[in-house]
Amino acid sequence: MKRFILSIFLSGSCLALAACADKEANAEQQMPKAEQKKPEEKTVHVQKKEDDTSAWIKTEKPAKLPILMYHSISSGNSLRVPKEEFEAHMKWLHENGYQTLTPKEAYLMLTQDKKPSEKCVLITFDDGYTDNYQDAYPVLKKYGMKATIFMIGKSIAHKHHLTEDQMKEMAKRGISIESHTIDHLELNGLTPEQQHSEMADSKKLFDGMFHQQTSIISYPVGRYNEETLKAAKETGYQMGVTTEPGAASRDQGMYALHRVRVSPGMSGAAFGAYIKSMK
């Protein structure tokens, strides 16, 4: 009889232990697994903005800044630069110690005749094509570079053009979004009032969208006149860029700055020689 009772007791204990084990297993399955950190992207950190120019290098003559001009990062015509060539250009800049600037840094450099590095460039893209996000942006992130996209106000989210979300994502990583007017009309063919409206409306749009003071405008197709320069100043911009060739300097006028057009077909070495020639 005692053996029978002992047998029942042991069987019950085993069942209880098994039940506890099942509960623990179920509880373990229900517990959320610790989140695993995603491997960090191997990219160079974007150079930080610097408003304090006290440590900048004073230039002996009025500062000159190559403002590189790109449009679409693709193939097809003289305004398009294929992604592979664009990457070769950025790699050359990175390996040769060039610092890429924001519009604010460019303004300080040109107006104070100081520069944050012996070698500086301002990288710009006109029109705001989707491939600026899909193809140029990853390359810029890879090398930790800043750049400026001149966006057409009414082209936002249109076919082949950037969306607001894409621009906001890039703006968090060193890409400045600036003005290419609202309608991309040739300004020298408009009345002074129309020019003023194109610039003011664009500035208001981007000021609000990015909580910024939009400071630089690129004139569509490089067309401008004296009224254009006047309107750019009156509507609150600090700088205006043209398609006139060469490095920018303040003696051109802060609203008529020259740019360095980058054409397709340039290898990294050819691009480098081209940039070095901009004295």
Automatic annotation (TrEMBL):
One biological process term in Gene Ontology: carbohydrate metabolic process
Keyword Signal assigned: yes
Keywords associated with the record: Signal
One GO cellular component term noted in the UniProt record for this chain: extracellular region
Domain NodB homology, residue spans: 119-279
Record InterPro entries: Glyco_hydro/deAcase_b/a-brl, NODB_dom, Polysacch_Deacetylase
Location of the protein in the cell: Secreted
Comp. bias intervals (Basic and acidic residues): 34-50
Keyword Cell inner membrane found: no
Tree of life domain: Bacteria
Major location (coarse): secreted
Signal peptide range: 1-18
GO molecular function, one term: hydrolase activity, acting on carbon-nitrogen (but not peptide) bonds
Annotated region described as Disordered, given as residue ranges: 29-50
PANTHER family, per database record: POLY-BETA-1,6-N-ACETYL-D-GLUCOSAMINE N-DEACETYLASE, PTHR34216
Protein name: Polysaccharide deacetylase family protein
